[in-house]
Amino acid sequence: MPPLESATAVLVLWGVIGYFLGSIPSGMILARMMNLGNLREIGSGNIGATNVLRTGNKKAAALTLLFDAGKGAVVVLLARAFAGEDAAQAGALLAFVGHCFPVWLRFRGGKGVATYLGILLAVSWPMGLTACGLWLVVAALTRYSSLAALVVAGWMPLVVGFTGNGSIFFLCAILCLLVYFRHWGNIRRLRKGTETKIGAKKAPEA
After folding, report:
1. Reported pTM
2. Does 14 map to a domain?
3. In this predicted model, what pLDDT tens digit does every residue of 86-102 receive, in sequence order?
4. Which residues contact 20 (CB under 8 A, 6 or more apart)?
5. Which residue among 31, 62, 87, 178 has its CA within the 20 to 30 Å range from the CA of 55?
6. Would residue 110 count as lying in a domain?
7. Into how many domains does the chain fold?
8. Segments forming the whole domain that contains residue 76
């Protein structure tokens, strides 16, 4: 992790900023603006891009992916510019938490995959591109968005460790745990063979 050079108040400030930016429910806002219905009543009920795609609107899904990734990246870039790398990582972590547990939606948010990728791209663009490439390969081969996310989250702490990017190891490790926690239901469905594939409109079985 980076040296803790910022004052505690600064870290807390960027954590709060990160949380509230991350908690903006992009998917739900876009779905309402584009008259796609209530995402809670569509597919898995999730607010992320994968579930938005189940409405049949690829443009809305792409925009959701862009905005969810963007809010994670923006927090990192702003905190880095105005405070430092330690504040950037604090803001990044809380942006992810905000997306997954937004106060506006009674703490029932998304799975955080797009926000995770946006954070990695901003924290270390080579590692971010590696994560995006790995996600695309696994998703293309299996058609499971959840499996691709789990593979990426599980491998990235090892990748950053072996490539000399130790300053972001702890961030990646904590995000990995959060990704697995948010995907626990998906893990059970993957083991049962009942997980919904990318593009399928049928909601996953419990």
Report:
1. 0.90
2. yes
3. 999 999 999 999 999 99
4. 98
5. 178
6. yes
7. 1
8. 8-192
